[in-house]
Amino acid sequence: MEKTHSVSTTILSVIITILGIASFSLCVASEFQRTKWEDLKLDGKLCHLPTSRAFRFGIVALICLCAAQIIGNLIVCRNFCSREKRITSCDARKPTIGGIFLFLSWISFGIAITFISVATSMNKRQPYGKGWLDGECYVVKDGVYLGTAFLVLVNVGSTLASAILTTRKREVDQAKKVYAQL
Predict the structure, then answer these.
(1) Rounded CA gap, 117 and 110, in Å?
(2) Subcellular location, in the record's words (predicted)?
């Protein structure tokens, strides 16, 4: 049973890493494929922007990042739920390093999802008179996708750190339990 958890955690960590690299790469690709000011067409007061490839890349980057976050949190929850309920009230209030990394992963996840979503929606087709917001056309600024790619790396790194630390904590707790029974 112990080896099964360790192997499954390793496999899931590899999957999280692959999804994180995919999301990072798609954010970088979106930076180079996004709509630019040169793509903007004006007809009097009306504007038009075509759909760019960054829209599709951004959607896939969102899916990969969400999947990595869900899988990582499943590992953490499995490790917390598999522990015995012998935690004292003092231990329950003490933040662990794994918990701090989990908090960091959620903060970076929230910011990254917001940036990717907004930037991606701006790269969707903006027809004449029906722009992104209030009928006006908007273009994503330089570096937004690259900044988001950095946040993706922070998110995936902190999610993996939290998953690994909680797995090790569970293994240490189980070893202490076995040792105490001897």
Answers:
(1) 11
(2) Endomembrane system
